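Thread: Modeling a multi-component assembly for a lab meeting

Hi all, long-time lurker, first post. My supervisor asked me to bring a structural picture of a complex we are working on to next week's group meeting, and I have zero experience with this. I have the sequence lines for every component (596 residues in total). Could someone generate the structure of the whole assembly? Inputs are pasted exactly as I received them:
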Amino acid sequence: MGRHIAFVLALWKTNLLSAMEYRVSFLTQMAGMMLNNAIYFVFWIIFFARFEEVNGWDLVDMLFLFGVVATGFGVGTYLFGNAVRLSLLIASGQMDYYLSLPRPVLLHALASRSNASSAGDCAYGLLSFGAAVYFAGAFDILMLLRFGLGCLAAVTVLISFLVLVQSLTFWIGNTNLLTSNAFNAIVTFSLYPITLFDGTAKLLLFTLIPAAFIGALPAEFVRRFDLAQLAQICAGSAIFLFLATFVFYRGLRRYESGSAFQVRT
Amino acid sequence: MPAVSVRDLRKTFQLKQKAAGLRGSLRALWRPSLQELDAVRGISFSMDEGELLGFIGPNGAGKSTTIKILTGILHPSSGEAEVLGRVPWRQRQELAFQIGSVFGQRPQLWYHLPAVDTFYLFGKIYELDDRELKGRIAFLAEAFEIEELLETPVRKLSLGQRMRCEVAASLLHRPRVLLLDEPSIGLDVVAKQRLRATIQRMNDLEGVGVLLTSHDAGDIEALCRRVIIINDGEIVYRDKVSALRRRYLTVKTVDVRYNEQLPPDFALPGVEMVKVGRYGAKMRFDTRVTPVGPVIGGLAAAGSLADVTVSEPSLEEVIGAIYARAESKDG
Ligand SMILES: Nc1ncnc2c1ncn2[C@@H]1O[C@H](COP(=O)(O)OP(=O)(O)OP(=O)(O)O)[C@@H](O)[C@H]1O
Ligand SMILES: [Mg+2]
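Re: Modeling a multi-component assembly
Sure thing. I ran the full set together rather than chain by chain. Output:
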C-alpha cells in the first residue's frame, strides 16, 4: 500500500511539473471553469427565488449539492485526469505504456494526467460549500469531516462510472459518443435536486447513471448526519469501485494495443 | 535457462467493424461483425541470457506483435512464452521490474518535460532509492552522451537525441533483458551508429540481453550474432549472421572493362550476363555452381583487361531475397 502511495504521489508531482510548463493556460482554464459553474448556478438562484423549495429542497441544499459535486468532479478529474480519456487511450493503443511498467495499469493510467480546468471546479465547489455553511448558519468540525467523506464518495463513484462506461471500448472499439453522452448525463443529473425524481427515474439514478451517489446523497449527508445514508454512500462507492475494476481488467485481457485498425463502415 | 523462450506462439487479431455513431456502437455490442487476421502463426525460438538477437522482417510481419506479447502488453491467442522464467501476460508486473522495452514509434518520455523528470518518475515506478537513482542517471548520461540534454524539454530534442534518452530510460532499473522495437527508426546514419555503439557497450558492461527489431540490416549486422527472419507471421530463417552471409553471399557480381572492343556475343560458361556493352560487361555467377578460377581465367583470355570489380550482394539484398523466396513458397 505504502509503495503505491509513493508512486501515485510521484505521478501527481510529475503532472504538476507538466502543467507548470503552461502556467498561463492553466490559470485561464481554471478561471473559465469557475465562471462556467457560477453562470449555471444563477439559473437555480432564479428558480428558487420563484419556488422557494421543491419537495423539501431549498437553495441551501443546492449550495451543498454544488459544493460536493463540483469539488468531487474537480478533485476526481484533477487527480485522475485520464478518467475522461480512457476510451481514447484504449482505442489508440496508448495503454501499451502503462502495461510495460511494473504498476497497476488502471491506477497508473488514471493518475497520469491532471486537467487544468478541474482546479476551477474544485475552487468553485469549495466556495459553494462555504456559502452553504454560511446560509445554513450551522457549522461544526463534523460537518467538515462529512464534506470530506462526501467528496471522496463522489470522486469514487464518478471515476468508477467513467471507467465502467469506457471499458466497453475493449469490446466494441472506440466509444467516444457514448462516453460524452454518459459524461453529460452524469453531470446533469447529479446537479438536479433529487426530489424532482421518483420511481423508475430515481432507481436509474442509483444504478445505471449513479448520479445520486455523486450529488444528492452525499450533499444531504453533509448537511445533516444520517446513519442509513452513510451506509448507502459507503456501499455504493465500494460496489461501483469493485465493478469498475473488475470490468476494466476483464476487458484488458482483450486489449489489442495499436488498434488504430478499426474499420468504419 | 534461456532468457526468452517462445513455443508455438500465435496471435489472431479480430478486426472490429462497426457503424458510426451511438446506434452503431450499441449494435456492435450485441452483434459484433468480426474478421480475423493472423499476425503471428506459431513461432518458436529462444534467446540466451546476454545475447544480442536480431529480429527482422518486412512491414506487417508480426515483429511488434511478438515483442508486445513478450512484454505482457498483449495476450497471445495460443502458445507459450517465458521471459526470465515468467509468463509475461500472467506475471506482467514482476517481469516489468526485470526487463526494459523501447518502442521506436511510441515514446515513453513525457513530451513536455525534460527527460530527467521522467527518469525520476521511473525511479519511483521501479522503486529505486534516491542515491542509487542519482548515480545511475549520471552513469547512463555519460554512457549515452546525454548529459547536456537531460534538462531540455523532450519536445525540443532531435529524434536521435530523444531516442538515446529513451533507451537510457529503459535501462534505469538495470534490466536483464531489453526489448527494442525499431529503436533506429527515422535516425540518420550517424545517429544510428551512435545508438548501436551504446547498446553494444551496455551489453559488454552489464550483460543485458537485447532482442532487437529493425528495418536496417546494418543494425543487425553491427550488433547481432544471431538473427531470426520472420515473414507473414512465420519464421523463415534463423541462424548466425555470419552464416547468413556465407550461405547467401556466394553470388558474385563482376564488372569488367577492356581496352579493346568485345564481341557482341561475349559469354562465359556458367555465368549469367547481366549486361554486355562494347568495352565492358556486367555478369553474375554463383560460386557453388561455377568456381571462381575458370571465370577469372575466361575474363583474362577474352582480351586486354582494363579493370575488374568483383562484389557481393549487401546483407540488405540477401534479406530481400529471403523474403522473396518465402513469398513465392506461400504463393
Ligand atoms: N492492434 C491490432 N489490431 C489489428 N491488427 C493488428 C494490430 N496490430 C497489428 N496488427 C496486424 O498484425 C500484423 C502484424 O503487425 P506487426 O505490427 O506485428 O508487424 P511488424 O512486423 O511490427 O511490422 P512493421 O515493420 O510495419 O512495424 C499486421 O498485418 C497488422 O496489420
Ligand atoms: Mg512494428
